[in-house]
Design brief:
Helix content is 82%, strand content 0%. It contains two helices and no strands.
């Protein structure tokens, strides 16, 4: 269970890093498009936004999956002295 959780967490970290990288590039391009009055570059920023949005949605799904793994591991490995409400499986 822990291995799966850490693998999901690593994948989520990678996805978020990619989204942040794309967002940074988009901000640079948007700035250049405004400063240089470059319509083609501005249109590229708008097009790239769809990819960033899709990747963000995937990362949000991964976050939910990691939360479920973490919740399951806490419930599964709860000590016997823990309150019974934590021991649901």
């Amino acid at each position: 269970m822990r291995t799966a959780y850490h693998e999901e967490l690593a994948a989520l970290t990678e996805q978020l890093g990619q989204v942040c990288g794309l967002a940074g590039v988009a901000m640079e391009r948007a700035t250049q498009a405004l400063l240089q009055v470059d319509l083609l570059l501005a249109e590229q920023v708008i097009t790239d936004h769809d990819q960033i949005t899709a990747m963000s949605a995937q990362a949000a799904e991964g976050r939910s999956c990691c939360w479920r793994f973490r919740h399951q591991s806490l419930v599964t490995y709860a000590p016997s002295s823990a309150p019974s409400r934590l021991l649901r499986t």
